């Protein structure tokens, strides 16, 4: 029996607030589609900042900083799709998500791009300003990891200030629903293609963009 599709959401908010509420809404909608939807709250894991070593562009082994990032990366690899969700803080991406992008990307994902051809969705939450900028940054990060990005028509940007305001943004939440719908459909199409052909829908190719480091010098990230 084929396992249910699984979406893992990365919540980059420092608090249990509107971003968490949006993801709970997305999870409830996903369940109606028969999709498993889990959330990693970055505020609840042990995550250190990048250290002073400064050898990220030269190292051929995974990051030496010991925290919970490897276990989160493994969960991402096991999932069919990833949602990156973060609020706007100080006109930019909340610091927890920024730290996660740096630690996971430079320390683990860049070696062989294990998220290639997984389905990605992006959600940003803002009072009013910079929702598009944060959405764009997270989008570029997904594309860097060679993920298959699906849209929701208008971007899934939700406007909220006080706790509970997210639910009042009907258009934003409707776009979140559309995003989950399309992620579910794309996961199904990709699974069907793999079953019929035995291969990914898109070629993997050379997954190492690092200048001067041949592929055979790199190790698996996790």
From TrEMBL:
Highest taxon, organism lineage: Bacteria
Gene3D superfamilies in UniProt: 3.40.50.360
Keyword Flavoprotein carried by entry: yes
Keyword Flavoprotein appears in the UniProt entry: yes
InterPro entries in alphabetical order: Flavoprotein-like_sf (IPR029039), FMN_Rdtase-like_dom (IPR005025), ISF_SsuE-like (IPR051796)
Domain NADPH-dependent FMN reductase-like, residue spans: 5-157
Protein name stated in the entry: Flavodoxin family protein
Source species of the chain: Streptomyces zaomyceticus
């Amino acid at each position: 029996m084929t396992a249910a599709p699984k979406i893992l959401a990365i919540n980059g908010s420092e608090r249990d607030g509107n971003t968490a509420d949006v993801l709970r809404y997305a999870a409830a909608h996903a369940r109606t589609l028969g999709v498993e939807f889990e959330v990693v709250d970055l505020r609840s894991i042990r995550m250190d900042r990048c250290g002073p070593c400064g050898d990220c562009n030269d190292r051929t082994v995974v990051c030496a900083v010991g925290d919970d990032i490897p276990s989160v990366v493994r969960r991402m690899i096991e999932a069919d799709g990833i949602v990156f969700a973060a609020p706007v803080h100080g006109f930019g991406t909340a610091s927890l998500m920024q730290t996660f992008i740096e630690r996971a990307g430079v320390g683990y994902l860049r070696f062989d791009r294990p998220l290639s051809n997984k389905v990605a969705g992006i959600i940003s939450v803002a009072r009013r300003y910079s929702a598009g900028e944060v959405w764009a940054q997270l989008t570029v990060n997904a594309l860097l990891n060679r993920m298959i990005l699906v849209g929701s028509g208008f971007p899934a940007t939700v406007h909220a200030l006080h706790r509970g305001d997210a639910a009042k943004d009907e258009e934003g939440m409707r776009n979140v629903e559309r995003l989950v719908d399309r992620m579910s459909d794309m996961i199904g199409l990709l699974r069907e293609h793999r079953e019929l052909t035995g291969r990914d829908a898109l070629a993997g190719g050379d997954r190492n963009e690092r200048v001067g480091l041949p592929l055979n010098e790199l190790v698996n990230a996790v």
